[in-house]
Amino acid sequence: MSDEFRSGFVCFVGRPNTGKSTLTNALVGQKVAITSNRPQTTRHTIRGIVHRENFQIVLVDTPGLHRPRTLLGKRLNELVKDTYSEVDVIGFCIPADEGIGPGDRWIFEQISAVAPRTTLIVVVTKTDKVSREKVAEQLIAVQEEFGAKAADIVPVSATAGQQIDVLTDVLVSHLEPGPAFYPDGELTDEPEEVLMAELIREAALEGVRDELPHSLAVVIDEVEEREGRPEDDPLLDVRAILYVERDSQKGIVIGKGGARLREVGTAARHQIEKLLGTKVFLELRVKVAKNWQRDPKQLGRLGF
Q: Domain Era-type G: where (predicted)?
């Protein structure tokens, strides 16, 4: 590889919960994509930006590709496929602790059909969860199944930080020489309100064993600086609305006596303060928008 500056767009794909968002955050070195052990938690194309002296990787984080059951599902899939055809490298994520299944093969077929000329590498994720022997077995299985079309196969653990530098080098090796797309120091091009909404959504999904992920949307209603604060100690008032589809789900989000919503608010506020670098007063309200996932008007209003 020459010393020329390289840049390009990279997208991680795979079944839900294969570690795509965690990998994005590990490469960027800061939280820009929400992570959750619930499938279908990423809704927006959040770009994380990896800067080094001689390259810039722009990571495009998409929802997991899945067989859609609702209008929201169809729109998310369209977003994913559009992204596939526009990036330079696709990293196909397969976890080390699960066998290759029909879902993986289906996604591989979709990638091959939509983006036949895009460079494909396979990333075997979550290697910290299994023994070295198991990792080796998975790498052999991946080679047999997808090796003919994959330019590289890289095992990593994003949570343990293993092989992240190796993966970075591999990604850069497949990018063309070109200019930086974003100024040095910028980590994402998503508006702060989108990131705030995603952080609130992540906190609300934590520990919920219901079908809530698909039914929860967060809209930032208002962001304003609190008046009369000293200049060296500003406070930002953030008001957000959490939309669910049914009254029963509203009860789950709020919890007994509002206890769960307070926990969500505390967890999200800490993350938002880290993101913005300033104190935040966070006010959360929960509203029911009946069957919003199937209603084009409501989908539009909620940002989809």
A: 6-177
pTM comes to 0.60
- What is the C-alpha separation between 93 and 155, in angstroms, rounded? 10
Residue numbering of the annotated binding site for GTP: 14-21, 61-65, 125-128
Number of Cβ within a 10 Å radius of residue 162: 15
Name, in order, each residue with C-beta under 8 angstroms of 159's C-beta and a sequence gap of 6 or more. Answer: 22, 26, 126, 128
- At residue 207, φ and ψ (nearest 5 deg) are 80, 5
How far, CA to CA in Å, does 211 sit from each of 187, 216, 235, 248?
32, 9, 35, 11
- In angstroms, rounded to a whole number, what is the distance separating the alpha carbons of residues 25 and 54? 20
pLDDT tens over the chain, length 304 residues:
557 899 999 989 888 778 888 888 889 876 666 555 544 444 446 568 888 889 999 888 665 556 666 666 666 667 666 777 778 999 999 999 999 999 899 889 888 887 788 899 999 999 999 999 999 999 999 999 999 999 999 999 998 989 999 999 999 999 999 888 877 766 665 667 778 888 898 888 886 655 565 678 888 888 888 888 888 888 889 999 998 888 888 988 898 999 999 999 999 999 888 877 788 999 999 988 887 777 777 766 666 6
What is the distance of C-alpha 166 from the center of its chain? 21
Binding residues: 14-21, 61-65, 125-128
Q: Phi first, then psi: what are they for 275, rounded to 5°?
A: -65, -45
Q: Which residues contact 155 (CB under 8 A, 6 or more apart)?
A: 96, 123, 124, 127, 135, 138, 139, 163
